[in-house]
Design goal:
It is built from 12 helices and 10 strands. By secondary structure, it is an alpha/beta fold. It folds into 2 domains: 26-216, Type I PLP-dependent aspartate aminotransferase-like (Major domain) (Aspartate Aminotransferase, domain 2, 3-Layer(aba) Sandwich), CATH 3.40.640.10; 235-333, Aspartate Aminotransferase, domain 1 (Alpha-Beta Complex). Helix 2 (37-50) runs parallel beside helix 9 and helix 11 crosses helix 12. The radius of gyration is 21 Å and the shape is globular.
Amino acid sequence: DYLGLGQLKFSIQDFSEFMKIYSPNLSSSRLVSGNSIIYDDLESTISNWLNFKNCLIFNSGYDANLSIFNIFKDEDILVFSDQKNHASIIDGIRLSGLDKKIYNHLDYKDLEGKLAYHSNKNVQKLIVSDSVFSTNGNIVNIKKLVELKNKYNAILLIDASHSLGLSIFENYHDVDVLTASLSKAWGAHGGIILSSNDIRKLMINQGRTLIYSSSLPIYNLYFIKKSLQCLFDAGKRREKLTYLSDYFNKSFKVLFPNQTNSASPIKKITFDRLDVAKKIYNTLFENGVFLSYLRYPTVEKPTLRISLSYFHDEKDIDKLLELINQYYQGEKNV
């Protein structure tokens, strides 16, 4: 909830009127009797906003990524996937039985070498990458991926879960398929796939998580709609989040010059020892600071992940870094 939109107050009267119009529940999959005009309206608005031909709303970002790879099943497709892509991408490729080549994390020379080596023109190439990587906050170079996509006649799929709605990218032009969760900057629950008309038709006919899942509850669509409206007008929230990210990076670099930082709202600090990471995590929690504690196999080294939000301020960052530095340096001297 980077922009804090999931915590905004809402009008009970407006919510009640919405529910009266659209009924309380759809109780079926969208392809049977669970579709609604509110789905169609939302999908049209989202696709127009992001300049794609079509949009489909899913029950989660995980469902979206499982479904998109499912449409390529039994086709001559070779997937080129970043080493640190999200688990939903990994599962989508695996469950669809697709051949894949893993390229080193954000290593575009390695990716191009693999694309050039697998030059069979009868096999469709598919490049897939997170836009912002959830475990380390690293940001992909979309322009470079577009360049490689065009050079090697590939399809480009970007998971924009941790960038959609923020100021990280100017646009997603020339991306063929965009997937995302709605629970990050959007502050809602659900997932989306933005694509061409042909991809949408394939999703409706072959996307198993869409075909065989019940629709989202109507009240959930209400919150997707309200959060989207707020997202359009969240310029000041985005500016504040960008400022907090820069503020964090400058302070963090002074205390931890050997650690890396990111321009995204996701920050991290890595440790060589699991027991040290766990102790610092527990100490922070006891002092009212909640972080994500990531371990193998999610990450290679024990990691504390920090997610900045619109509701944070400089004092929160100062407190966090002071506590981490205090206990981290203490453990280093043991």
